[in-house]
Amino acid sequence: MSEVWKPSVTVAAIIEREGRFLMIEEQADDGLRLNQPAGHLDQGEALTQAVVREALEESAHDFEPTALVGMYMSRNVSSSRGGADTTYLRFAFAGKLGTQHDRPLDEGIVRTLWMTRDEIAACRERHRSPLVLRCVDDYLSGQRAPLSLLYTDASVTASAEIGAGVAHG
Predict the structure, then answer these.
(1) Domains in the chain: ranges and CATH
(2) What would the pLDDT profile of 95-121 be if each residue is shown by its tens digit?
(3) Where do the DSSP E strands lie in 3-117?
(4) 2 phi/psi in degrees, rounded to 5
């Protein structure tokens, strides 16, 4: 029986303030990289829950998603991980930046910084993904879809609660 191919689902928060975007600098397998606050969808999460969690973990800020900027796919063949071939399916969200909390940043996150679109474009070789600049450009072009396009059936989050010992009858 052959293995079923599955993309790795990620979320990203596109946060703009006065012409600058909140970025994170993180230590990756291939060096210091720039990205939006972003990460993987966890089992039992809705996409909007995942982006709220990732923004908090990576930037120490609350984030309220207000729109879907886009859905993106990219492929990475990692030279640092023995040629591991991963396809990513990224959901990028625009939203409102909330309270900053006094808490440590997620493991591997070196710092947060605010960058203009041109500053982000000037260092493409340091981007964690080829989607980093594309998401910013789509945001700046006004691309938005309502969050109502995303639907998460209760069975998704119920399975996480059942696994945590909370059953629904």
Answers:
(1) 8-163 (3.90.79.10)
(2) 999 999 999 999 999 999 999 999 999
(3) 8-14, 16-17, 20-28, 31-35, 38-40, 61-78, 84-100, 109-115
(4) -85, 155
